[in-house]
Design a protein that fits this description.
The chain is an alpha+beta fold and about 210 residues long. It has two domains: about 140 residues, Electron Transport, Fmn-binding Protein, Chain A (Pnp Oxidase, Chain A, Roll); about 40 residues. The chain has eight helices and seven strands, in the order H-H-H-E-E-E-E-H-E-E-H-E-H-H-H. The longest helix is centred in the C-terminal third of the chain and has 15 residues. The chain starts with a helix and ends in an 8-residue tail after the last helix.
């Protein structure tokens, strides 16, 4: 079992100079363009009192996360399951990490920083005419930023359609959750669930309309 830093480092070569120097502390031209093209990111956060870490998917049209300036990102909070795991974590501990993806691009963009939850009209109004005026915006102060190499995507072949499993390799989400929770028979089909999601997403395209 690895229990010390010396044991860990003994297994690996020292990082190369390029790997160390690529980390920067601001949003440069390349990072800005990456974010503008990205329709999806994962946001990681932590809580207090030993609470486990959380990673949450976030998505929208390309550029749904806005670059306010070289140190600041604005991420609108869209409707979800109302557990608020990420938002509660950020209230307790503002540190966060973001991983941005672009379809068919094998590199990713990693950003570490600190967050504030903003509900002032000046922040909300920036998103009012895109899909739905959010209840709040996560303002992110960028501390560390770097591009991550393509090897994980090359190994996984994530963007290669020929490697994708058929959807029926898994039960529907409703079936899995019913099994996990011990609930009764599934009453909503996968098709009905998808139609419900699509109705909710269409509602988001009407400014200032609440998602049902």
């Amino acid at each position: 079992m690895i229990q010390t830093l010396d044991q860990l480092r003994a297994l690996y070569a020292a990082p190369g100079e390029r790997a160390l120097r690529k980390q920067i502390a601001h949003i440069d031209t390349h990072a800005r363009r990456f974010i503008e093209l990205s329709p999806f990111c994962v946001l990681a956060s932590s809580g207090v009192n030993g609470r486990l870490l959380d990673a949450s998917p976030r998505g929208g049209p390309p550029g749904f996360v806005k670059v306010a300036d070289a140190q600041t990102l604005l991420l609108p909070d869209s409707g979800g399951n109302n557990r608020l795991d990420t938002l509660e974590n950020l209230l307790a501990d503002p540190r966060l990490a973001l991983l941005f993806f672009i379809p068919q691009v094998q590199e990713t963009l990693r950003i570490n920083g600190r967050a504030r939850l903003r509900d002032e009209p000046a922040y909300l109004d920036r998103f009012a005419h895109e899909r739905q005026r959010p209840r709040l915006v996560i303002e992110i102060e960028v501390h560390e930023l770097y591009l991550h190499c393509a090897k994980a995507f090359m190994r996984s072949q994530l963007w290669a359609p020929g490697t994708w499993p058929q959807r029926d390799a898994l039960p529907s989400m409703n079936e899995m959750i019913h099994d996990q929770t011990g609930a009764g028979p599934v009453t909503e089909s996968a098709e009905a669930m998808r139609a419900r999601y699509e109705t909710q997403l269409r509602a988001e395209t009407t400014p200032d309309k609440e998602t049902p």
